[in-house]
Amino acid sequence: AGEVTFEDVHFAYIPERPILKGISFTVPAGKTIAIVGPSGAGKSTISRLLFRFYEPQKGRILIDGQPIADVQQVSLRAAIGMVPQDTVLFNDTIEYNIRYGRPEASMAEVEEAARLAQIDRFIKSLPEGYATSVGERGLKLSGGEKQRVAIARTILKGPPVLVLDEATSALDSFTEKEIQDALDLVSRGRTTLVIAHRLSTVINADEIIVLDKGLIAERGSHATLLAAE
Ligand code: ADP
Ligand code: ADP
Q1: What is the average pLDDT score of the chain?
Q2: Closest alpha carbon to 103 in 113, 95, 111
Q3: Any bridge partners for residue 139, and if so which?
Q4: How far apart are alpha carbons 120 and 145 in whole angstroms?
Q5: Rounded CA gap, 205 and 29, in Å?
Q6: CB-neighbour burial class of residue 144 (10 A; exposed 0-12, middle 13-18, buried 19+)
Q7: How far is the CA of 216 from the centre of ligand 2 (A)?
């Protein structure tokens, strides 16, 4: 489950300036599709439409054949997960931070998610800045480690569809390797839509869609697109 389809999607924030001029693609269940293109091409708009922050003026978006316009907002939130690039941790244990969104999860499930995200060694730790009456000091996590907490949270929540929007992130704080590792971890067996600036971070995508001036300019595997350059 989790197939996502854009069917001739047209969208403009203001009528005189169309952003998407008829975009069609399918992310088959369990596959990873990357959207790349220059800044302002409309990449993040695609994820905003998928979350129904906005509605297309023409065309449809479907999940497993059902138009998202007919899906309740709460079901849509459960079906689509998002890994933010800038994770702000709650002032509590890493375990609590992983459980956020699914507090009833068993300890075994939490441990498995933490193991996959490779943060199981500090699951009981407190993040830096955590203050208690005895002045206890927390653990300083790097940007990449904080992102791993968000990844463990997403793995535990287990949405069938995942959106990774790198386009709006503070890229400087992450190495390309960290982003790629994160991607490989969360996208395993899940339908994944990656919004990226650079072809180099999406090498492993099943298909790459190049967006330009509101249209799909090119599409294909990483190798095919490189060969065409
Ligand atoms: P990308 O992610 O490819 O950089 P976006 O999808 O964020 O591009 O934006 C596409 C275009 O839409 C940009 O020119 C941007 O300025 C414009 N845009 C984004 N949000 C709004 C908005 N709320 N109102 C008007 N224009 C917007
Ligand atoms: P921008 O920085 O361009 O104004 P935002 O920071 O509002 O965009 O959002 C970045 C991306 O994250 C958007 O494309 C949107 O799809 C997604 N997003 C924002 N808030 C949420 C949310 N609460 N749940 C899921 N996705 C979200």
Answers
A1: 85
A2: 95
A3: 127
A4: 11
A5: 13
A6: middle
A7: 22
Mean pLDDT calculated for residue range 86-91: 80
Does the beta carbon of 90 sit less than 6 angstroms from any atom of ligand 1?
no
- Among 91, 98, 90, 92, residue whose Cα is nearest residue 114: 98
Please give the distance of CA 145 from its chain centroid, rounded to a whole number.
Answer: 17
Minimum-distance ligand 1 atom for the alpha carbon of 168: 2
Q: Are 141 and 128 a contacting pair, CB within 8 Å?
A: yes
Most informative mutation of 11, 20, 48 for ligand 2 (most atoms within 8 A of CB): 48
CB of 44 shorter than 6 A to ligand 2: yes
| CA separation for the pair 115, 110 (Å, rounded) | 9
Q: How far is CA 212 from the centre of its chain?
A: 21
The ipTM (two decimal places) reads 0.63
> Are 106 and 145 spatial neighbours (Cβ–Cβ below 8 Å)?
no
